[in-house]
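re: ur question from earlier - yeah i can do the single chain one, its not a big deal. heres the input i used so u can compare w yours
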Amino acid sequence: MPHILIVEDEAAIADTLVFALQGEGFGTTWLSLGAAALEHQKSTPADLIILDVGLPDISGFETCKNLRRFSDVPVIFLTARDAEIDRVVGLEIGADDYVVKPFSPREVAARVRAILKRVAPRPPTDLGAGLFQVDTERVQIHYRGRPLNLTRHEFRLLNCLLEQPERVFSREQLLDALGVASDAGYERSIDSHIKSVRAKLRLVRAEAEPIQTHRGLGYSYSPGHS
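and the output i got, formated as tokens:
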């Protein structure tokens, strides 16, 4: 049974989430402080964390930053703040999704299930004419035999492109690969993630340009430029 850690200081909201998630077959733990959540994840790792941004001790953003120093557990932010910059910051510091209050508990449960399905481990596979090896269990991609130091979002973006060579993916489609709603205001953050992935590929082969830009359309993986 997947176990979900809920970090929320409002008891009514937490109770609603506990009821919805347990009704979908998930185990749950509820904590109200960011510091307590970090300690809990170190000692008793959850499969996914639902994290409120406005916690009373340290913010959800800061909690997530600290969490990413030792864990790749999927994170869904809960917040009353709907500004685009908040959503972009949330994604870039390592969140997997961002839900604005008020929300539908059933929708949150559906997002939890979708994220857990997406991050479930699969056997390592060779992609990109054998130049790339993808290991979803370890969240690792090797390029020309060398491991790439990718963030979780960078891993998902590159894996998405590798699975369908030459296909042009729009920013919206790449957001889907991250599990982020296409209307969440994250589109331009895709560009920064792609830029970072390209830089890491060039550390292995300086002239490599496997990720191609299609102006006004999106990005594709081109084996001929690997």
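The mean pLDDT is 86. not sure if urs matches, ping me
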